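Entry 14. Ran structure prediction on the chain below.
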Amino acid sequence: MIVHYHYDERYIDKENYKTSHEKILGILNQLKAKGKITDFKVLEHQQAFPTEQEKKVFLEKLADFSLIHHVGLARIFGSRKYGFSYIPIQFIIVYEDSEIKEVFPCKIGRDQVEIMEYLEAAHKGESWTKGVPSKKEGVHEKIVAGIIANPALLEPGLTCVNRDMQVGTSISDLGFIDVVFKDSKRGYLLVEVKVKSGEVDEAIGKILRHRKLFAAQNNLEERGIRAGIVCPQISDSHEKICREIGIQCYEVTI
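Output, structure tokens:
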């Protein structure tokens, strides 16, 4: 994984940008030293985009990335009226095998993920991904709200990180995790909530897929992330299957 840090030299001496510039360079060096990234490049805008045509090609590439990956970039690299027409003063591109993996800052749902927010999460080995506004209602929403308000319904020591967390690398491979918790050992527990016992088969497939996407997107070891299913009623056969493949089962009625 390689990170390109882009900045505009005309503004970097201003105090607020100078401070963030130094912080970004410092943490990039730390990430490389710890082996969390392979390398990084520091690119001044005039060096990276010497002509308007090169700038245009780059912005078109970001527009395609934004659409495919379902992340908001148009307002960051442009405006409400003229999306993808502007290069911000500071931004980073995360590459994997020469392909763009992530862009920061970016917007997911209603939340903007800033450069340092992502870099600090990567340094700590934590998740940076955000949730999106929930459109679910009824019993499902009651269960989700209930376990967020009282995580001890599942197990002691849980803290809610986020809900309806968006994961995936493209529209065709997009998923939403109902609730993400951290446990007492600072590990992650990803939870899929179902209302009916007949939906548990679907939940098994979804939570395993979402765990893989969550690990890949946050550059975390999958084996350190637990998966769980919450449902008012889970059959003995489903519990046995889940136990064999490492999924926690929680019967919760709210």
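The first helix runs from residue 15 to 33. Will compare against last week's run tomorrow.
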